Structure formats: structure tokens, C-alpha cells
Amino acid sequence: MDLASIVGLSMSIIVVVWGMIMGGDIMAFYDLPSIFIVLGGTLGSVMVANPLERSKNLPAILKNAFVTKQIDMIGLIQTLVSFAEKARREGLLALEEDASQLDDEFMRKSIQLVVDGTDPELVKSILDTEIGLLEERHSANKAYLDSVAELGPAFGMLGTLIGLIQMLGNLSDPDALGPGMAVALVTTFYGSVLANMISIPLSKKLAQNSGGEILCRELMVEGILSIQAGENPRIVEEKLKVFLPPKVRKQLDEGKEEA
């Protein structure tokens, strides 16, 4: 589980609810028709704008924002360097058994292509295409939440207009104007919460997770192609270290010194 997402969302909810409680009666913020207008209207419009299959996968999309796959970049580089050393000693065919034991399907496929003697340009083309398709799928999932963030406030405003129209129809009763205005504004509140507290932050988290996964795969491609070219393991390591932030790069160097 991604602790930052859980803590951040919980903190936002607590702060907003605390402000509602401190300002008076919290039930003033509850209006069932407004909830139906914002949630139902937003979901319906998002379903129109996206394929039905993507709407069915909404729980999985939200799960990806809260469950972040931890990528051990240092361990990945060490694995690729060890493959480079073995390939230089025993040849590329010696990596076939190691490839079959890998958990990562993308890396296993990459090694197998090299072992099968596939042309380097074709290997790069296949792997780059797979990365591009992965990025496209991630972008589509992010766009789904972006649609919610865009349409939520719009339906909040629509609900407010409905409330104002109903309120103006009762101008003959001055006592009903205050409560009517409050109810009309509640829908705008719901739309803003849906967009700014939920959809936009989760969309940004999906983009961040996608960037990390794509960077990891680009590192794999660089390492696999270097192994196929028969480059010195030290050169392979230096090329792959470029993908690491300076702090993580320092940890890798310190680990080698201790070893």
C-alpha cells in the first residue's frame, strides 16, 4: 500500500470535516439530491466519454493509485550487471535458464529475445513498442480520473443552478431563501470535493507511478541491449547508473565498497 496516498487523503478528509464541524451544524452540508446530481451526473458523463470496459475497471484504476509497486532499481542494475558478466564468460545462451526464473515478464521476454539471436534493432523496436503501449494504457487510466475532475465541478454548478431556480420560485417566502441558498451551494461543494480532494490527486499519483514503471523498463532495455552487444560489465553498470537519482547512485557505490 502507498502510505502517502492513504495518509494524504485521510488528512484532507479530516481537515475538511473539522472545518465543517467547527463552522456549525455538519448536517447543513448534507443534501441527498445534490449527491445524486454530482455523483450520478459525473459518472454518467464519464461513461459516455470512455469505453464501457474502462468504467468497469474503475476499482482497479483506483487500486493502482493506492498500491504502488516498489521497484528496487539498485537490485535491478545488479541483476543486469551479473547477466552481463555471465554472458561475457559463457555466452548469451547461458542466460536462458536465468531468464526462465525471472518474475518480471518484460525482463524475461527481453532476455529470451536476446538468447534467441534476435537482431538488436528488432529487439529494441519490440521492447520500445511494448513500453509505448504500456504508457498509452496508463495515460488512458489517468484520463479517466481527469474526466471526473473536469466534470465533477461542472455538475456541482449545474446542481447549484437547479437549486437557485427552485429558490427563486419561492421568493414569496423570505424565510425559505436562506436554507434554499445553502442547499444550492452544497452541490458546488460536492463537485469541488470530488475533483480537488479525490480525482486530481489520484490522477497525479497514477502519472507518478506510471513514470516510475516506464523508467524501470527503459533501464531494462538499455541493459539488455548492452548485454547483447557484449559490452564490458563495468560499462553496462555506468550506463545504467545514469537512470538513478544521485542519492540512490551513491547508495549503489557504497554497497559495492562494502562488498
Biggest β-sheet description: none
Total strands: the figure is 0
Question: What pattern of helices and strands is seen along the backbone?
Answer: HHHHHHHHHHH
Low-confidence stretches: none
Task: Provide the number of structural domains.
Answer: 1
SS-based structural class? mainly alpha
Q: Helicity level, as a percent range?
A: over 70%
In what range is the share of β-strand residues?
A: under 5%
Task: Determine the N-to-C terminus distance.
Answer: 32 Å
Shape type? elongated
Number of helices: 11
Give the radius of gyration: 26 Å
The chain-level mean pLDDT equals 87
Describe, in plain words, how this protein is organized in 3D.
- The protein has 259 residues and is an all-alpha fold.
- The chain has one domain.
- The radius of gyration is 26 Å and the shape is elongated.
- The mean pLDDT is 87.
SSE inventory with pairings:
Blueprint: H1 3-22, H2 32-49, H3 52-56, H4 58-66, H5 73-90, H6 96-100, H7 105-115, H8 120-168, H9 177-228, H10 233-241, H11 246-258
Question: Quick gist of this model?
Answer:
It contains eleven helices and no strands. It has helices spanning 3-22, 32-49, 52-56, 58-66, 73-90, 96-100, 105-115, 120-168, 177-228, 233-241, 246-258.
Question: Could you name the key traits of this structure?
Answer:
single chain, mainly alpha, 11 helices
